[in-house]
Amino acid sequence: xxxxxxERKAAGPPPWAPTKSTVFRSYAAAVVGDRAEAxxxxxxxxxxxxxxxxxxxxxxxxxxxxxxxxxxxxxxNPEFNYVDSLNPKHxxxxxxxxxxxxxxxxxxxxxILYVNLELVNKKSDRRYIVEEMLGQGTFGQVAKxxxxxxxxxxxxxxxxxxxxxYQQAIMEVSLLSMLNDKFDPDDQHHIVRMLDFFPWxxxxxxxxxMLGHNxxxxxxxxxxxxxxxxxxxxxxxxxxxxxxxxKGAGIIHCDLKPENILITPKVNSAAGVKVIDFxxxxxxxxxIYSYIQSRYYRSPEVLLGxxxxxxxxxxxxxxxxxxxxxxxPLFPGASEYDVLSRMIEMVGGQPPDDLLREAKNTRKFFKHxxxxxxxxxxxxxxxxxxxxxxxxxxEARDSKKPxxxxxYFPRGxxxxxxxxxxxxxxxxxxxxxxxxxxxLALVDFLxxxxxxxxxKRWSPLQASYHPFITGEAFTGPxxxxxxxxxxxxxxxxxxxxxPGGGHWLAAGLSPQVGSINxxxxxxxxxxxxxxFSYGSSCGSFSSRGSFNDNVGPASSYGSxxxxxxxxxxxxxxxxxxxxxxxxGGTFLGFSPDIRRRPHLSHGVGIRLxxxxxxxxxxxxxxxxxxxxxxxxxxxxxxxAKYVATSPARGSHGSSLGKAAVVGQxxxxxxxxxPPMSMPPHEYTSQLIQxxxxxxxxxxxxxxxxxxSYGALPNSGHxxxxxxxxxxxxxxxxxxxxxxxxxPSGYNDFRPLHSSNVPADTSTSTSSVPDPADWDPNYxxxxxxxxxxxxxxxxxxxxxxxASGRTIQSGRLPNIQSHDIAGSNQRNDFLFHAPSLRESGxxxxxxxxxxxxxxxxxxxxxxxxxxxxxxxxxxxxxTSIRPTGNLQNVQSAWSKYGMPDSTSPPRMVExxxxxxxxxxxxxxxxxxxxxxxxxxxxSFSPCLGSGGMPSN
Length: 951
Ligand SMILES: Nc1ncnc2c1ncn2[C@@H]1O[C@H](COP(=O)(O)OP(=O)(O)OP(=O)(O)O)[C@@H](O)[C@H]1O
What we know:
Elements: H1 5-11, H2 20-23, H3 27-37, H4 39-43, H5 46-50, H6 54-58, H7 61-66, H8 69-76, E1 118-121, E2 126-136, E3 140-147, E4 152-159, H9 163-183, E5 194-200, E6 203-209, H10 215-221, H11 229-249, E7 251-252, E8 261-264, E9 272-275, E10 282-283, H12 300-303, H13 311-326, H14 336-347, H15 353-358, H16 362-365, E11 366-368, E12 386-388, H17 391-398, H18 414-420, H19 433-449, H20 460-464, H21 467-470, E13 540-542, E14 559-561, E15 566-568, E16 605-607, H22 622-625, H23 636-639, H24 654-671, H25 680-689, H26 695-701, H27 780-784, H28 788-795, E17 799-800, E18 806-808, H29 817-820, E19 845-848, E20 854-857, H30 886-895, H31 912-924
Parallel strand pairs: 13-14
Antiparallel strand pairs: 1-2, 2-3, 3-4, 4-6, 5-6, 7-10, 8-9, 11-12, 15-16, 17-18, 19-20
Bound molecules: adenosine-5'-triphosphate.
Adenosine-5'-triphosphate binds next to β2, β3, β4, β6 and α24.
């Protein structure tokens, strides 16, 4: 029965009701009383003074009303009980609906983050207070957090609570640990610093130094105009620096793109950039995934399904350098076919025949003409027996048109593109004298990077000596010094079972058969700073005996002795990673001498020889770990808000791409995927004959005489590259084609492979939304949005030239549109060209009449396509593919040396991932992040008795 007001009155106030005296006590009285009660205050005579409320009145009203409000309420009503958790939360994660992990995770297995949530490293009791979302990507979320201990902001990547992502994140941790600690201990090589990692609520959290905006945002900031050349040079040099170190460590980044290069604003010091996101990285020679790299930056060998090395990062790097200059992605293809077509059209030539012969996807893109196809030539001047399929041929084969994206700049050769940038003055003769040399140097620099043949593509070290980077005068085509070939690529996992019965592939090791001596190249400028020899370019197997004797820092460079690699299969169960250091501890696969390592004789798994970072050997194909029912849902809604998809934060569009890929990957996982067909030895021997001979140097030692310095390519020139055996190069002489097929209308920037597609129209007929075009947040308005933080960030940019001289110091002018509006000149500032919008064209379609063939829609800049790597393995081994029940997952787990096979992993509520992580990291010697916080540097989990972390 409902109680009436009268009855209530008669019954007296409810027990919780404040009494008049407490409720309506004045705030001042409460404060006075409060202070009067404080012993310390009393002691200091504050009580007496507190009756004077003038100090309180001076505060702003909001402060006065809310300061100590909880205590005030408590004063007013002693029964008032403030419960923090009942506060409305400001959620940062999308969606924020609790689904998994006892309501802590959403449907995507992302930890639901909200403002002021604490992420705690329970081992060190270090707390990170979530403040805002920086990005939501494939592997989880990155949040800006306050680190109370250091009074600074950090970026914390909270990995999804799924084994697959967890595994790959362990890889990220281990690779970055290695890079940070062993190869760049002094933080000099433009690689992001990892500060901490810890498990939290079944999520792995990785703490990074807080960096600024990424390079895509920087370009976008200026309406996708390019940067001034000196900035292109400076950033390129720094990225190269990172790449040199990575190559020295044998690490392939696999997802290099402008979004993964972040600005590091430093007040009063040289600004620069840092490479982030090693979440897709792997070790050279131990490549697992074939679908890697974001599409625009995907190398030809990856597109074609050819074994890859660190050279793929150099391709991406070349794309980035060009993009920094022109402001737009170089190959913004809407499909892989489109990307490859653009490469061929813009770079000239095509991948060499031996690559095409071996690559597993060749038939997707090329037609084998049986013999030398008339009129078709590879880029090195040799005729080819392959030619790229026409769109019609692709359509006839696939019963649907290939997706072809828009062209955002004049079609034509890359050199022309660079020379005529910003494309308003189409006559390259307009190029100021002063810029000619720079442009020539840039074009020549790009020549060595966007090189179809990975064996001829310049290494980062070779590229770093290019005049474009060093700032020396450019006097003619650069010939890189000969570099000792380091790591022939390992055939990506192709074998189901290794002969020894172990699981090479499960361990992430590509069997590399063949007697190849691998030693640290004499010209490795970045020997890791560690006392012993090390396996830096980890991942190659060498045959017995080939392991060199020159023990020392450069000796056991990344080699695995195929006869000594210890793979065990034992019914006794897993032995974990068995990473044993000769130095007396376990560490990340660095054994100073493979020959002396202890041989363990039990367990499944693999003991890594020098150079193989432990966790990496997980062969962390998510497919092996994703529980059958695990969800990898990434609805567009979940990705649209933050970084990955938003122009405001870089890799916009990528999430969807990645989501699609993850979905594909999961499907693939379930369906299985055929192994690559080529036996490893074939590939190895091929490589030995290729790059191990005169390799790079010979490729560039020939036929460059015709590259006439100072001469810009004229309209009659077909191939902008200096040609082997052809004395034309960039000669202005159109007669120098030497039998090359004259492209139709190079003059007019017409495509080599005419697709009859107007440049401003998309021929995509697919009803399936293309992730490349999917960018819900994209708009011209967003392009024009000022971002003061970015301006501020850049305001303190100081750039130095090659000699260390400051070329741009002090505060740069704010990046305001009026700084550049209406300017058609390369501004004496960060950016060097007006945007299409500002180059006098009205919004909407921009018709470059003078090109006659190119219409551009500035409204349709490419939706960024950070298409992710897709993880699928080539392994057919059912033993490592989860087959639908926990036990199988567990057995897969145990094969990777994960803990105790007798206690199956709990997928959601338990701690096995944390335990596994802890064990792995402990075994791998990843101690640094916790050093100083743990006893003896060991990593031990902060587990409650029940296995769950106590909060
Ligand atoms: N150290 C950092 N400082 C500032 N922002 C960062 C940092 N690390 C990452 N971010 C932001 O978070 C975003 C996602 O980070 P990251 O690329 O490492 O995650 P991811 O899941 O691999 O994303 P993606 O799927 O886009 O590759 C980055 O694009 C960047 O904007």
